[in-house]
Structures are given as structure tokens and as C-alpha cells.
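Page 42, continued from yesterday. The earlier attempt failed because a stray header line got pasted into the input along with the sequence. Redoing it now with the clean sequence only.
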Amino acid sequence: MLSTEYIHSVISLKIDELSFNREPAELYEPIKYMMNLGGKRLRPALCLLACDLYGADIAEALNPAIGIEIFHNFTLLHDDIMDQASMRRSKETVHKKWNQNVAILSGDTMMAMAYEYMMKTPEKVQRQVLLAFNQTAIEVCEGQQYDMNFETQWNVSIEDYIRMIRLKTAVLIAGSLKIGALIGEAPREESEKLYKFGENIGIAFQLQDDLLDIFSDEIKFGKKNGGDIITNKKTFLYLKAFELADRKKQDELIHFFSPDFTNIDEKVNGVKQIYQQLDLKNITATEIKRFHQAAMVYLDDLNVAGTSKSELRKVADNLMNRKY
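This time it went through. C-alpha cells are written below.
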């Protein structure tokens, strides 16, 4: 199996080759800026690793993998607008650097470009790949809408939240693996196992992000601590805290998450203190481990040589061991 390091080098070279020197510059410069912010490039790497897992030439999956990465960055660009986020990967977000209208239009263009690259899938599997990608794209948008809905809803359960992050985050990771497997002409049951592996890793990954949003080094993480608290996100930490808290602490959480509470520093520090008192850091870490272990069951069940799965196992383990 090809190494993850080699896979990442192939992806980086391909992204470096993308040309955004087109007019109007105000449309394409933000796209170039967004694509060059870096990031883990996890999803295209998983697509290529899944393709390689079944002995196919990763060159056949490279364009669709790039399409996935462009789509992912499109979702981040639009998420930043909706969250009014000022920083992404330690740099100004597109709508802050330019303006909101430019960001919306550049994002729309990225969505079209993503489909352009997905169309470059080998013809024998093109229809299956496009169906999988389209379903994934729709589900990601569904997840984003649930996320926004939850900001103004008080009756959100942990089950609701897990369903939302499955859609918003996990299905794109799962879909990337499935698309790579489809291009590699893996048996259907194998592509479904890879999908479930990715789904569980994706949920664990988002829970880890929720944890890092509160307990991380801001400079290394590339985002300001407490962003989810500031935007009243009902994350796993908030929902579990509300479940475990006594009435007094519940009232404090409601107070801090009120739209009328405008002292940002007091809000973040107050909520973080409650999370620490309730041991939410360790409780969330246990939940992350549970989904990671569920993912490993699906990976172990794949009908390929154990050594062939080592790179996917390494990627999954690295995601769970992030400290920032």
C-alpha cells in the first residue's frame, strides 16, 4: 500500500498545479487564497488510500479527490460566513479579508469547480461516483442547517447532536472513502464497510474538534478558544454538561447561552469553568474513544490483507491523537 506521506505529496502537487489566474480577479483570488490555507487534506487522502487499497491506480481517483477537497473548502468558506468567524487556520477568513458578497460568490464557484473535477472520474464508475458525491453534498447541507437550527433551540438531545455531526462532518469523510473504493472497483459490501469506518471516524473527529475548541493552544489550533460557546453551539460538551449539571449550573448555562449575554470573555470563561467542574474533558475523550473503536471494527472486517489497512489505521489514530 502507498504511504500516506506519498499520497499527501501527490495531492499537494496537484493542488499547486490548479490555476486561478482568471478574470475577474475578485472572484478567483479568494478561491486561490482559500485553497492555499493548507489544512490536513484528509478527505482527498482517504479517497486515494481507499482506491489504492483495492489495487487500482490512484491516478484514476486523483481528480475526484481534488474535487472533494475543493468542495470541503467551499463548505468551510460558507460556514465561516454563517458563523461570522474571523479566523481560519490562523489567517483571516475570506469574508473578513474581502467581504461577504465576494465570499458567497467565490464559494458558489468552488462548488461548480468541485463537480467539474468529479466529472473526470473514469466513465465505468462515473455515475456511481457522482451519485455518491451528490448524496454526500446534500447531507452536508442538511447537517449545516441542523447546526444553525440548534443555536436557537433548547430541546436538543445528544442523539440529535450526533445525527447532526454525522451529516455535517462525518459523511464527507465516509463519502471520500466510498468514492475511492468505487473507483478502485471494490465489492459493494467492502465500500459500505469503508463508509461506516469513515462515518465513525468522522464523528470522533468532530467530537475531538469540539474538545479542542475549548481546551487547545489557540495559535497551534488556528482558531480562537471558545468559538462554539460564542456562537451558542450546542456541542456534545454543552449537552452533556446540561445533562450532568445541577439546577444551579443549568441556570448558569442558560444564562451564558442567552442571546442577550454579550460579554464574550465572561461567557467563554464561565462556561469553560462549568465544563471543567463537570470533568467534560475526560467524558468527551471517552466518547471519542468509543466511536474510534467502532470504526476499527469496520476496518478490521475489510477483506484485504491486514498490512494493507495500516495506512488507514495510522490516519485514524493520528486524528484521535491531535492535541491542537
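Notes: The chain has 16 helices and two strands.
Reminder to self: strip header lines before submitting.
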